[in-house]
Design a protein that fits this description.
This protein has one domain. 8% of the residues lie in helices and 38% in strands. The chain is built from 3 helices and 18 strands. It has a 6-stranded mixed β-sheet.
């Protein structure tokens, strides 16, 4: 499964790095992810008054920190600084999530895929039981290192606890998405990712 523009959505959308709803993750490889409070969606202080700062969440496939409120930070023995919600119970949430680029080109990823799919965009993403489920906007079938034809893919499934372990390669081009989640401004920057997944 080759994901372009979906790169970090399976982490962000499913809450895998949110300290108030942590999911146990097995160590993986390749990915380094951090939350950057500068830029669109950023702030100087979170909604609990904690000074905002750049926070590395995943380093070389190992989760080293979560997005935290004061409460979740206390429980996990980590630092707070990602609380969102002034008039509600604070929720641990991203500002600008960034996946560090790797050294693979998109062409190299396609040529190394004996059979798979190139997915772009996202219609829906959620965690259901132990599975991350993503519905992509567009998909193309890849066979023997070449794009063959557009196809309809209803769902991409990745086991939540195994997500980081399934990363095969990280691209060197960066893509950005800005928008609103749960009423909060956010942005996501990420390269393409080659990942093992089940397609339905």
């Amino acid at each position: 499964m080759f994901q372009k523009h979906l790169s970090n959505f399976w982490l962000e959308k499913s809450g895998l790095i949110e300290g108030d709803l942590p999911t146990e993750l097995r160590d993986g490889n390749a990915l380094t992810i951090y939350d950057e409070p500068a830029g669109f969606g950023g702030y100087n202080f979170d909604d609990e008054g904690v000074l905002a700062r750049k926070r590395k969440l995943v380093e070389d496939g190992v989760v080293i920190c979560h997005l935290n409120t004061r409460e979740s930070a206390f429980k996990l023995c980590e630092e707070p600084g990602n609380a969102r919600g002034l008039f509600t119970i604070p929720k641990a949430f991203q500002t600008n999530l960034v996946v560090e680029k790797g050294d693979w080109s998109i062409e190299e990823m396609i040529s190394e895929t004996s059979e798979g799919f190139l997915a772009e965009g996202i219609l829906r993403a959620e965690i259901f039981g132990e599975m991350i489920r993503i519905s992509p906007e567009l998909c193309w079938y890849i066979r023997r290192g070449e794009i063959q034809t557009p196809v309809l893919v209803n769902e991409i499934r990745i086991p939540a606890s195994d997500a980081l372990k399934r990363v095969v390669a990280v691209g060197k081009e960066m893509f950005e998405r800005i928008g609103f989640e749960k009423g909060f401004p956010i942005s996501e920057k990420s390269p393409p990712i080659l990942i093992e997944a089940t397609v339905a």
